[in-house]
Design goal:
The protein is mainly alpha-helical. The chain has seven helices and no strands.
Length: about 220
């Protein structure tokens, strides 16, 4: 029975250190995202000016304030999830051997030695597993909160960038509209300055016909007289 418990607690001990390694590897992505967010914050401050604030009202300032708060909480949670924890480890081989020699001096029966030595190991495994499990739970929760604050900061960054994008879109739309109007006016003016040769020929022919008819009418009237 003690051997089964020993194997069970030993397996749990290694699982907790596997959890520790996974948590350490999961910290890499938040570090990278937070670095990018700090660069985005610097960009927001560089773009800040009176005209943008007048255009967006409180939307731009509220977005930056919310972004800074979420980013600060994310950084604090990330630091707390990485620093300040001491995992508990099993005694090394030398310490275990010293304890076994003490048992060897106390007991002559090998079964008693093995029994108390297993008790010693089980107790150490239980203490390590309890402490390491609590630390991993705390770090996992802090890392989860870090990710939540990063998502909130990204949402506030979208809110902050919206006035910039809208202002830029309006500027581009106004430029396209003005260009279209100027091009249209140039086309209309150039069309008015040109003369249609077909219309000119038609008007000339009509005038010739009218004058010819006038001459024929006058000649007829002279003959009748």
């Amino acid at each position: 029975m003690d051997q089964y418990r020993l194997e069970l607690y030993k397996e749990e001990y290694h699982k907790e250190f596997d959890r520790k390694s996974k948590i350490d590897s999961r910290l890499t992505l938040p570090y990278g995202i937070i670095t990018v967010l700090f660069g985005l914050l610097a960009n927001f401050f560089n773009r800040m000016n009176s005209s943008l604030i007048r255009f967006s009202g409180l939307m731009y300032l509220a977005g930056i304030i919310g972004f800074i708060i979420c980013l600060a909480f994310a950084v604090c949670r990330l630091i707390r999830s990485y620093y300040g924890y001491e995992y508990r480890y099993m005694p090394n081989s030398l310490e275990q051997e010293k304890y076994y020699k003490k048992l060897d001096n106390l007991y002559e029966n090998d079964e008693d030695k093995i029994y108390f030595f297993n008790k010693f190991l089980i107790t150490k495994y239980c203490r390590c597993n309890k402490r390491n499990s609590i630390i991993n739970d705390i770090r996992s929760e802090l890392l989860h909160k870090t990710n939540n604050f990063i998502i909130a900061a990204l949402i506030f960054s979208i809110v902050t960038m919206s006035p910039i994008a809208i202002k830029k879109f309006n500027k581009n739309a106004k430029f396209i509209y003005d260009s279209f109007n100027s091009t249209s006016k140039e086309v209309i003016n150039s069309g008015r300055g040109r003369t249609n040769p077909t219309e000119t020929n038609t008007s000339t022919t009509s005038k010739d016909k009218i004058s010819k008819r006038g001459k024929e009418h006058s000649s007829k009237s002279k003959q009748e007289k």
